[in-house]
Structure formats: structure tokens, C-alpha cells
Design brief:
The protein is an alpha/beta fold. The protein has a domain of 190 residues: 3-Layer(aba) Sandwich (Undecaprenyl pyrophosphate synthetase). It has 10 helices and 6 strands, in the order αβααβααβαβααββαα. The protein has a 6-stranded parallel sheet, with helices on both faces. Helix 1 packs parallel to helix 9, helix 2 packs across helix 3 and helix 4 packs parallel to helix 6. The chain binds farnesyl diphosphate and magnesium ion. The site of farnesyl diphosphate has 17 residues, from helix 2, helix 3 and helix 4.
Length: 284
């Protein structure tokens, strides 16, 4: 049994509803701000760490629902740079939770491969403890060839920090003559970021803020806010979010047929190489 993808959590009737929803347009990239773990813990008189563990269990159910819905990309906000300001006890518990779950993922890699899940951890990895940084790098390398569902985990992440890291990469590219300033445009900036544009963003727990999540990417995203606490999120909440998307989605963008300048393509390859080198460096 996989810990990351919860099996047997969809009833026959729910599967039927998923099929009905799939006759309409389903978002190709959905992002979640998984909020409300500590309020859930308080409500149920358990400690905060248990609340976060329940939050992880909910993520594994949500991934199964997304796989059944045929959604190819899911991004979750699992740890913000701001979260480092929480008590040492809570930060340590969250880091330990991540360590345990990423280690489980490597231990069950055959099942992850069977599900076709690729894991990409996006954020300022240099802020993580060394053992966790090495572990997430191993997870990314181990799953890089899977292509049924890409799971982006925003960890030690904020949207503004992501934009500033992309700016630094572009400046390095200019300094190393890999890109000329006149080729820097919106497309190049988008492609220099860690994360792509979600079509639907869901935030739980009644908060209606963005909390510095994917700021560049959500310019055209449908937003859905629900009062339910993340550990109590159900498949019905997810289907309601998708119906909201179906009612409010902007028209599908026509494929950009403009040829990308050769220099830009080369620069993007250079970025890919740099990312790969960084991962290998973290592992060794
Ligand atoms: C927000 O609720 C949740 C977090 C800061 C942590 C989210 C992490 C998980 C769901 C586990 C994911 C783990 C991995 C390894 C992917 P909160 O703490 O802000 O709760 P509150 O809003 O009720 O205070
Ligand atoms: Mg919160």
C-alpha cells in the first residue's frame, strides 16, 4: 500500500461523479494552499504535529482523486519561508514530517513509478537542513522520468522569493553571455521560475489571502476559497472547486506559435543544466 497515494478512498458512486465531472473541462494544473491543520488539531484536542500528519494524509487522498480526475499537475504549499518564524518545536516537527515522508517515498519508489508520479520540490532549498536537502534532491532525481502526474511541493517557498531567485538566474545568464538583455521578456521570466501557471487555486480554512503563493503565475487563475479545514477536505469539496472552475474558467489560450529565439532556447537549456548540477551537488 502506498503512503503517498491513498488507494481505496473512492467509492463507486464517487467514481461515477468523477466521470460526470470529466465530461466537462478539468483544470490541467491545480494548486492547493493546505491551510487549517492547527485549527483542526485544536478542534480535535490533539497536538499540532498530529494536525500536520493528518494534513499529509489528506494530501495523499487528494492525489488519488486528482489521478482519477486525470489532472496532470498538482502544486501544494507545504512550507512557507514565513513558517520558519513558528516555534522551534513546530518547525522541527514539520521538518521531521517531511524527512519521514520523503524517506517513505524513496522506500516505495516502485509504487510511485507505477502511479507515474513525478515529484518536484520548489523553493529556496539552501534554507533546509542538509539531510532534508539531500533527501528531496534524491526524490526529484528518482522520479524525474514519471509523467502521469507532476506533484510540485512548494517548500521553503514564497512567490516573491521565487521571483527574486529567477531574477538572479537571469542576471547570471547575462553576465555569462548566455542571454542578452533584449531577449528578457515575460515568457523568459515565466520559464525561469520554479513553477508553472495553475488553472485553479484552492485555499482551505476560510482564509481569503494568497500568502505569497505563486504570485507571478496566478494572473489568470480561477480562485476558490472554502471554509473547510485542510484535514477535513473531502472529494465533494474538490468536485465543488472543479465545478466552480468549469463555470468561471477563461477561454483556453491559443498555442503560442511564435518561434522562440534560439538564444532563449539555449538559455533555458543552460538553466536546466544548472538545476541538475545543483541537485547532484546537494546529494554528494
Ligand atoms: C497550514 O496549516 C499547513 C502547513 C503550514 C503545513 C502543511 C503541510 C502538510 C499538509 C504536510 C505536507 C508534507 C509534505 C512532506 C508534503 P496551519 O499550520 O497554518 O494551520 P492553521 O491555519 O490552523 O494555524
Ligand atoms: Mg494557517
Amino acid at each position: 500500500m502506498s503512503l503517498w497515494i491513498k488507494e481505496n478512498c473512492v467509492s463507486f458512486f464517487q467514481l461515477f461523479c468523477i466521470k460526470v465531472i470529466k465530461t466537462g473541462r478539468v483544470p490541467q494544473h491545480i494548486a492547493f494552499i493546505m491551510d487549517g491543520n492547527r485549527r483542526y488539531a485544536k478542534k480535535n484536542s490533539v497536538d499540532k504535529s498530529t494536525g500536520h500528519h493528518k494534513g499529509f494524509d489528506k494530501l495523499s487522498e487528494t492525489l488519488k482523486w486528482c489521478l482519477d480526475l486525470g489532472i496532470p499537475e498538482v502544486t501544494v504549499y507545504a512550507f512557507s519561508i514565513e513558517n520558519f518564524k513558528r516555534s522551534k518545536e513546530e518547525v522541527d516537527a514539520l521538518m521531521e514530517l517531511a524527512r519521514e515522508k520523503f524517506q517513505n517515498l524513496l522506500d516505495e519508489i516502485d509504487q510511485i513509478d507505477e502511479w507515474g508520479v513525478r515529484v518536484h520540490v520548489a523553493g529556496r532549498l539552501s534554507l533546509l537542513p542538509e539531510h532534508l536537502r539531500s533527501l528531496v534532491s534524491k526524490v526529484m532525481l528518482a522520479t524525474k522520468d514519471n509523467n502521469r502526474l507532476c506533484l510540485n511541493i512548494a517548500y521553503a517557498y514564497t512567490g516573491r522569493d521565487e521571483i527574486s531567485r529567477a531574477a538572479s538566474r537571469i542576471i547570471d545568464g547575462v553576465k555569462e553571455n548566455k542571454i542578452s538583455p533584449e531577449n528578457i521578456d515575460e515568457e523568459l521570466i515565466s520559464q525561469s521560475l520554479d513553477l508553472g501557471e495553475p488553472e485553479l487555486l484552492v485555499r482551505t480554512s476560510g482564509e481569503v489571502r494568497l500568502s505569497d503563493f505563486m504570485l507571478w503565475q496566478i494572473s489568470n487563475t480561477v480562485l476558490y476559497f472554502t471554509d473547510v479545514l485542510w484535514p477535513e477536505f473531502t472529494i465533494w469539496n474538490l468536485l465543488a472547486a472543479i465545478i466552480h472552475f468549469q463555470r468561471n474558467a477563461p477561454p483556453i489560450k491559443a498555442e503560442d506559435t511564435n518561434e522562440t529565439a534560439h538564444e532563449k532556447e539555449e538559455f533555458l537549456k543552460y538553466l536546466e543544466q544548472r538545476r541538475a548540477q545543483e541537485l547532484t551537488k546537494y546529494i554528494s
